[in-house]
User: Which sequence fits this backbone?
């Protein structure tokens, strides 16, 4: 208790700030909102409230040793449509615009954080981790879900092939990670070292590969359900083209950013914000254009483009550090908004309905990750401590997994809401538990910046 | 999707245009007036708006309204930061009174002229006439520094004292017009309840004071600790959003509320310099975005608007000339300045435009669109006139 005494004055101020903020939020909720201008005001107020309340709450939770993003997510959940309803469903959907911007921005950061010299050193370790984690997580989730559903007759209205497809898709989605959370926590702790680089490399690479795995799983599912009879090579070609095209475009844009930094230089943060936003929206427009005009579903992946662009600037130009500084300037507000909105989107209804199954899947996935990281660490001859803690760094899951679940639901409507609900419920658990375990892992690995006051008070 | 697309275009234009307009872009004088004042962005906005390309249709404008509120808040905060008492004290006190008096006289004259014109010539409901007249008078009372920025260095060297006074007046004279414009928000023309206006005024003032006090307390608490730059950026953005959002939800002006916050911050905060730097980072893109948003609101559907713009421009010019004359004659300390001081106060941009956008957002109607349209035309007239009259001022007076 004694060590927390020094924080009491800070806590008092944080408490008063939160009290005033909540007071304003209550007040604005009882105001009659009639005109469009007032409605716009309410949206603006909600964003400001979320930004400040999430930031303050994170500061309070930080004193207890929790990662900042847990605070942001927590406020999002509290303010979201499933708890207090301060942010309505409609508003959360409208604010998705910010999600897009934030995701691209975070992807740029992810690319910029990957340094070729470290990746070269840890390349083998990263590859082994990716292979084992994909295999273990998929196999364990697939097998346990399939056998349990059959044995306990959990989904009586689904046929056996349908359960197999559901298990297959759940298995693939279990492989997905959340690079955004990983980057937020690494930045928060200013962590650096072998363990951090490996985790980041694996997380970002899986984020790229998951798209390929998921496409393969969809094809397999179609074969199982009898919708098609063999592997669609056209789809595989289009997928390869999309991934290669996105990476190549990213390299090109990365060169463009380097040129901007070298030739123009000023207002870099604003430029990068605009860049991230444009890439996201332009790729969506391009994908839509290709589908409607040429009937080709060549999906450029904005996240891949941004990761590749960030990676190019960091590793193939002299302005990597300026680039990272530029990103850092607006990073905090973007992280706060992104994670609090992610919190507001977490489906608590799904969790309430599905919690036993979700908890089971969470445990199975965690066991899979634990097993794979353990074996990977042995093969890589990592220190024994890394062997024990590596699993804690891979729990987080977010947007990509939700996106994949929604895609699968659209393709297999007969699976009903099972898949989405289940995925949402598992993600809720993973996103609450994951950041905390990741921060503990970084601290235990001894890779957090100890001079940073933010890291002085971990578990 | 359309909202996003429109937002992308607007931000891209503002960003790229800011680089073209404000950085290393040398052009002949006529074009420089056009560029330096950002008039081209009004035209771009007009092109993007419903009258031409319709990329930013009314529905999209609605989607972009939160950004508009934030924009107005940012400008209000920046304007508040101009009133640092410590810095204002470096100037003679009569400069301040001169500026306030000039703003007040212009406001009164433009108000009288516009009100009479609206009553006699225009078919506007009585309840709305007052709001329109106050808004136009407030926008007319403000002065921009763009004309002074175009003066040649030898002119500035020759009339150094006059330029100093003109710069001071154009930074400060928006104070009274902005405060008076704030009163419009307590008067709700849609109800037409002219009789209960005073009652609404008091309850409105009390509500605003309460909200302002809470917001100021909040800001104070946030910056009571010295924060890292990135944390301060978050606090400034968050507080501007909160303040603008609350003001709009309470049917009040985000511009004015943030002005109060800015005024208080610059005078009491230890971190004022750092906050000011953050605000200045996006000052110019903000200004250009403001121009684009205003341009989008403009509709030129009648030649009468051109005439109304001329009349409004005339009232304002007369107001400025008379106010300039009176200011230099009433105060003995200012008598050494030329009587034609008003010639140097014709440029109209920045705050005037923010007032117009604030009005358009808070009182949306067909009438307000027409008002905005001719007022903007008048702003463009003024930009061109201001150069001519400034030259005359320095040829004859200074």
Assistant:
């Amino acid at each position: 208790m004694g060590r927390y005494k020094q924080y009491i004055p800070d806590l008092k101020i944080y408490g008063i700030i939160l009290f005033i903020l909540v007071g304003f939020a209550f007040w604005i909720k009882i105001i009659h909102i009639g005109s469009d201008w007032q409605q716009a005001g309410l949206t603006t107020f909600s964003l400001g409230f979320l930004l400040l309340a999430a930031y303050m709450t994170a500061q309070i939770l930080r004193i207890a040793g929790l990662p900042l993003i847990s605070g942001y997510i927590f406020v999002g959940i509290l303010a979201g449509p499933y708890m207090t309803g301060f942010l309505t469903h409609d508003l959360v959907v409208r604010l998705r615009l910010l999600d897009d911007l934030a995701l691209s921005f975070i992807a740029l950061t992810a690319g910029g954080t990957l340094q070729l010299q470290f990746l070269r050193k840890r390349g083998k370790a990263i590859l082994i981790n990716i292979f084992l984690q994909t295999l273990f997580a998929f196999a364990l989730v697939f097998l346990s879900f399939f056998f349990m559903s059959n044995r306990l007759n959990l989904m009586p209205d689904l046929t056996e092939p349908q359960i197999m497809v559901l298990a297959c898709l759940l298995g693939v989605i279990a492989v997905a990670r959340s690079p955004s959370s990983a980057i937020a926590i690494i930045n928060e702790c200013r962590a650096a070292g072998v363990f951090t680089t490996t985790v980041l490399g694996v997380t970002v690479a899986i984020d790229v590969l998951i798209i390929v795995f998921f496409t393969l799983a969809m094809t397999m599912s179609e074969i199982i359900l009898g919708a098609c009879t063999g592997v669609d090579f056209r789809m595989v070609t289009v997928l390869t083209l999309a991934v290669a095209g996105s990476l190549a475009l990213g390299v090109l844009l990365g060169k463009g950013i380097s040129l901007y930094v070298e030739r123009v230089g000023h207002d870099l943060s604003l430029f990068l914000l605009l860049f991230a936003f444009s890439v996201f929206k332009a790729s969506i427009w391009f994908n839509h254009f290709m589908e409607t005009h040429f009937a080709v579903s060549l999906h450029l992946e904005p996240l891949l483009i941004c990761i590749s662009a960030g990676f190019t600037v960091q590793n193939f130009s002299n302005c990597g550090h300026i680039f990272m500084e530029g990103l850092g300037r607006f990073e905090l507000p973007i992280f706060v908004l992104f994670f609090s909105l992610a919190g507001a989107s977490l489906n608590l209804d799904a969790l309430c309905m599905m919690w036993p199954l979700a908890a089971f899947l969470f445990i199975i996935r965690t066991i899979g990750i634990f097993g794979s990281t353990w074996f990977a660490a042995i093969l890589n001859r990592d220190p024994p401590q890394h062997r024990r803690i590596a699993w804690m760094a891979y729990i987080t899951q977010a947007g990509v997994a939700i996106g994949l679940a929604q895609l699968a639901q659209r393709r297999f409507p007969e699976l009903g809401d099972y898949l989405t609900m289940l995925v949402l419920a598992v993600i809720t658990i993973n996103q609450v538990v994951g950041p905390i375990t990741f921060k503990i892992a970084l601290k235990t690995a001894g890779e957090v910046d100890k001079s940073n006051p933010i890291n002085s008070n971990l578990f | 999707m359309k909202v996003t697309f429109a937002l992308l275009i607007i931000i891209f234009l503002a960003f790229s245009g800011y680089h073209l307009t404000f950085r290393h872009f040398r052009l002949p004088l006529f074009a420089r007036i056009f560029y330096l004042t950002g008039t081209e962005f009004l035209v771009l906005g007009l092109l993007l708006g419903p009258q031409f390309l319709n990329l930013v249709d009314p529905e999209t404008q609605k989607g972009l309204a939160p950004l508009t509120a934030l924009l107005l808040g940012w400008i209000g905060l920046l304007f508040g930061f101009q009133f640092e008492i410590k810095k204002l004290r470096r100037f003679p006190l009569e400069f301040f009174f001169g500026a306030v008096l000039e703003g007040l006289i212009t406001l009164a004259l433009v108000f009288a002229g516009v009100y009479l014109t609206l009553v006699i010539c225009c078919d506007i409901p009585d309840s709305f006439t007052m709001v329109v007249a106050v808004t136009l008078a407030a926008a007319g009372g403000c002065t921009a520094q763009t004309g002074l920025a175009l003066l040649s260095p030898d002119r500035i060297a020759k009339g150094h004292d006059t330029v100093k006074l003109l710069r001071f007046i154009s930074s400060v004279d928006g104070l009274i017009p902005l405060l008076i414009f704030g009163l419009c928000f307590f008067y709700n023309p849609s109800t037409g309840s002219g009789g209960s206006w005073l009652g609404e005024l008091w309850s409105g003032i009390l509500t605003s004071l309460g909200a302002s006090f809470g917001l100021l307390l909040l800001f104070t608490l946030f910056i009571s600790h010295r924060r890292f730059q990135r944390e301060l950026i978050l606090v400034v953005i968050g507080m501007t959003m909160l303040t603008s959002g609350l003001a709009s939800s309470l049917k009040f002006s985000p511009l004015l509320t943030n002005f109060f916050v800015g005024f208080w911050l610059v005078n009491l905060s230890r971190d004022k310099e750092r906050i000011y730097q953050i605000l200045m980072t996006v000052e110019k893109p903000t200004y250009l975005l403001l121009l684009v948003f205003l341009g989008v609101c403009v509709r030129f559907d009648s030649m009468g608007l051109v005439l109304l713009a001329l009349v409004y421009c005339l009232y304002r010019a007369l107001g400025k000339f008379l106010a300039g004359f009176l200011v230099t004659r009433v105060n003995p300390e200012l008598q050494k300045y030329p009587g034609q001081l008003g010639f140097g106060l014709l440029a109209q941009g920045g705050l005037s435009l923010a007032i117009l956008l604030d009005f358009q957002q808070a009182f949306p109607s067909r009438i307000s669109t027409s008002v905005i349209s001719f007022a903007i035309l008048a702003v463009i007239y003024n930009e061109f006139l201001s150069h001519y009259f400034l030259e005359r001022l320095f040829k004859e007076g200074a």
